[in-house]
From TrEMBL:
<dbReference type="GO" id="GO:0005543">
    <property type="term" value="F:phospholipid binding"/>
</dbReference>
<dbReference type="Pfam" id="PF07817">
    <property type="entry name" value="GLE1"/>
</dbReference>
<feature type="region of interest" description="Disordered">
    <location>
        <begin position="51"/>
        <end position="77"/>
    </location>
</feature>
<keyword id="KW-0813">Transport</keyword>
<comment type="similarity">
    <text>Belongs to the GLE1 family.</text>
</comment>
<keyword id="KW-0539">Nucleus</keyword>
<dbReference type="InterPro" id="IPR038506">
    <property type="entry name" value="GLE1-like_sf"/>
</dbReference>
<keyword id="KW-0906">Nuclear pore complex</keyword>
<dbReference type="GO" id="GO:0015031">
    <property type="term" value="P:protein transport"/>
</dbReference>
<feature type="region of interest" description="Disordered">
    <location>
        <begin position="244"/>
        <end position="298"/>
    </location>
</feature>
<keyword id="KW-0509">mRNA transport</keyword>
<dbReference type="GO" id="GO:0000822">
    <property type="term" value="F:inositol hexakisphosphate binding"/>
</dbReference>
<keyword id="KW-0653">Protein transport</keyword>
<dbReference type="GO" id="GO:0044614">
    <property type="term" value="C:nuclear pore cytoplasmic filaments"/>
</dbReference>
<dbReference type="InterPro" id="IPR012476">
    <property type="entry name" value="GLE1"/>
</dbReference>
<dbReference type="GO" id="GO:0031369">
    <property type="term" value="F:translation initiation factor binding"/>
</dbReference>
<protein>
    <recommendedName>
        <fullName>mRNA export factor GLE1</fullName>
    </recommendedName>
</protein>
Length: 663
């Protein structure tokens, strides 16, 4: 028999069931088989406290002592007993049953699901007779109140369960809704990100297209400007060419007029000479007749005197006639400075230019000498600074421009006269480049650009430099002096005349002289072929062509001239061929057929190496390739912009062995 506390005897009793399955493989289970009644009470109390704390219950439930729940299992001995319901299978008192039915609807508890051990199924009488009083007897009022309270609590619990169920349902729905919303948001975010990526790609594509269009426009503008600059350069070159041709035409007219005047002067002089000769002959005839007449008169007088002496008369005799000496004037014929006797070989115009340049340079040096003597120490420091700038010249646009600007600033320094710095620069250029180095060609081309840039702002630089070239080597004129025992006391005197240097009282060797001569001619060739961008070369390709024509027309073929022309062609041949083309090839053909053949005819073994180099240069068409260092780094030489039209060529042609030029 199982006696339960009074709350479980109320109407609508609660059926306790385990949360898990009731049976497993035919065996009943209990989630906590060691539960005590005290554990059940604590579980119910915790449920009540949760219900009271819930916001869904507006009025908290107060536990009453009359309910008797707190006292179950702890009843004092002095307390009165409450009603006790005994459930037995044998008997049930009619009165108690009636009274119980009037108070509380009694329900029978089925404990079929409770796990019972085999000892519990036994018919042990001691266990069957054991009765545990769970509740004391209560009055009718207290029972009704307890029933109402219990019903109220059940209703509250039911409402709470309903609310909890609805809340759980709403929570699940809200969770599902939130999940769906999150999914939508994620999809929207992904779509937005995809849209942003597409927009970003489209924007980047537009930026790239805009940048490409901008760069294309800049390139087109740059090309347009380059074309304008090239057209301007061509126009300026054509204008300069036209001016030069006009100037050459005027000079030719002046030359012709001068030649005509000289011819007329010669004719007049010849005419006057003829008249004077005739007058002299007439005077001589008259004088002879007068002399004869006087002689006759003298004879007659002598006869008279003899007669007088014989008669004793004395008379004074007149003095004998003295003839007046004849004075004849030779015609004033202008001297053509082409040769001095039979020793000097050079063109007349070349010698005149050399004389004028050296005279101006001597006047400049005479002017500078007292200035330098007054402050020699300061000018030596300035000289070292100029030499350092020249040595720092390299074959790049930046180096060329920077060194040219630095040197121009030195020339324009108000503390030092420009004449002194210009002359110092010319001397240092020649002295620094007289010795060949590993990168001599590149340095020579770069120095040519520096000289052209400087001379465009300080024109005196070019005249001084050319004068220094002529002093350093006679072949830059060009001219040659032939050895003659009658003209030179010793061979050493001749060597000093053509440019040999003395070292410790002795003349340098021929090989060293030829090496130095080649360096001078290479630097000179690099200068005349230089066409710097934006400036005009005052001693450019036209002067180089004139030099070559004069060289082949007047200079003999020997080891000195061979070294000079080979070094010059190495540096200037490429640019000369670019401008004069077929005319330059005619020059080379003349060198190959006449000059080289004349060298071979000499039979000098020292010339064989030079002959081989010249032949290789002409036969291998080396003049078609750019010389090493010819093009400055990161630059476009203005020579690339020189038009190749035939009308820019001057009238150069060969006739027999001589080359004529019209300037």
């Amino acid at each position: 028999m199982l006696i339960l506390p009074s709350p479980f005897l109320l109407r609508g009793a609660i059926k306790l069931e385990p949360r898990c399955a009731k049976t497993v493989n035919g065996l009943s289970i209990d989630p906590n088989p060691n539960w005590s009644f005290q554990d059940l009470l604590s579980e119910l109390n915790s449920l009540e406290s949760k219900l009271n704390a819930s916001p869904l219950n507006p009025k908290p439930l107060d536990k009453s002592a009359s309910r008797g729940v707190q006292g179950v299992g702890r009843r004092d001995k002095n307390e009165k007993k409450a009603f006790v319901m005994r459930v037995t299978d044998d008997e049930l008192d009619d009165e108690e049953e009636a009274e119980a039915r009037t108070l509380v609807p009694v329900g029978r508890f089925a404990c079929n699901d409770i796990y019972m051990s085999e000892s519990d199924d036994s018919e042990d009488e001691s266990m069957r007779q054991l009765q545990i009083p769970l509740m004391e007897k209560m009055g009718v009022t207290e029972g009704a109140l307890l029933e109402l309270t219990h019903e109220y609590q059940l209703g509250i619990k039911e409402n709470i369960r309903n609310h909890i169920s609805s809340l759980e349902t709403e929570l699940v729905a809200e969770k599902e809704k939130s999940a769906s919303v999150l999914v939508q948001v994620e999809k929207s975010s992904e779509a937005r990100r995809e849209m942003d990526r597409k927009l970003d790609m489209q924007y980047q594509r537009r930026i790239a297209e805009a940048l490409d269009d901008h760069l294309t426009a800049i390139q087109r503008d740059h090309e347009h400007r380059s074309q304008i600059e090239e057209r301007k350069i061509r126009d300026d070159a054509a204008l300069e060419e036209a001016k030069r041709k006009e100037k050459a035409l005027q000079e030719e007219k002046l030359r012709q007029q001068k030649a005509k005047a000289e011819e007329e002067a010669r004719r007049e002089a010849a005419k006057r000479a003829e008249e004077e000769r005739k007058a002299a002959e007439e005077a001589e005839r008259v004088a002879k007749e007068a002399a004869e007449k006087r002689a006759k008169e003298n004879l007659a007088k002598s006869a008279v005197n003899v007669k007088t002496e014989a008669t004793g008369e004395k008379k004074h005799t007149a003095p004998a006639f003295q003839s007046i000496p004849l004075i004849t004037s030779a015609p004033t014929i202008p001297k053509e400075v082409q040769t001095t006797g039979n020793l000097l070989r050079a063109a007349g115009n070349a010698l005149k230019l050399e004389e004028r340049r050296l005279l101006k340079y001597k006047e400049l040096e005479d002017k500078n000498q007292p200035i330098i003597s007054s402050s020699a120490k300061e000018f030596r420091s300035k000289e070292r600074e100029i030499a350092r700038r020249i040595k720092q010249i390299t074959g790049s646009v930046a180096a060329v421009r920077s060194k040219a600007n630095e040197l121009v600033k030195l020339f324009n320094d108000p503390h030092y006269p420009q004449s002194v710095t210009v002359a110092t620069f010319a001397k240092k250029v020649i002295s620094i480049f007289e010795t060949p180095t590993a990168n001599f060609n590149s340095s020579a081309f770069a120095c040519g650009h520096v000289i052209v840039y400087i001379s465009a702002q300080v024109p005196a630089v070019m005249d001084c430099l050319l004068a220094e070239f002529h002093k350093a080597s006679i072949y830059t004129v060009p001219k040659h002096i032939i050895y003659s025992k009658s003209a030179f006391e010793t061979k050493e005197a001749y060597f000093r005349t053509i440019g040999y240097k003395e070292e410790e009282g002795k003349l340098e060797t021929t090989d060293k002289y030829l090496e130095r001569l080649g360096s001078y001619m290479k630097l000179y060739g690099a200068l005349v072929q230089t066409e710097a961008q934006g400036v005009q070369n005052m001693h450019g390709l036209e002067e180089g062509w004139v030099w070559l024509a004069r060289f082949l027309n007047y200079l003999p073929a020997n080891v000195y001239t061979a070294v000079a022309v080979e070094a010059f062609l190495r540096m200037a041949g490429f640019a000369l061929h670019r401008k004069y083309k077929s005319q330059f090839r005619k020059m080379l053909r003349a060198i190959s057929e006449q000059f080289i053949q004349a060298l071979k005819d000499r039979g000098d073994p020292k010339i064989s190496s030079v002959i081989t180099r010249l032949q290789d240069y002409i036969e291998s068409n080396v003049f078609l390739k750019e010389p090493e260092g010819w093009r400055l780094k990161d630059s476009l030489l203005s020579s690339d912009l020189v038009p190749d039209a035939d009308h820019h060529q001057q009238h150069y042609y060969s006739q027999d062995r001589h080359f004529y030029y019209q300037r």
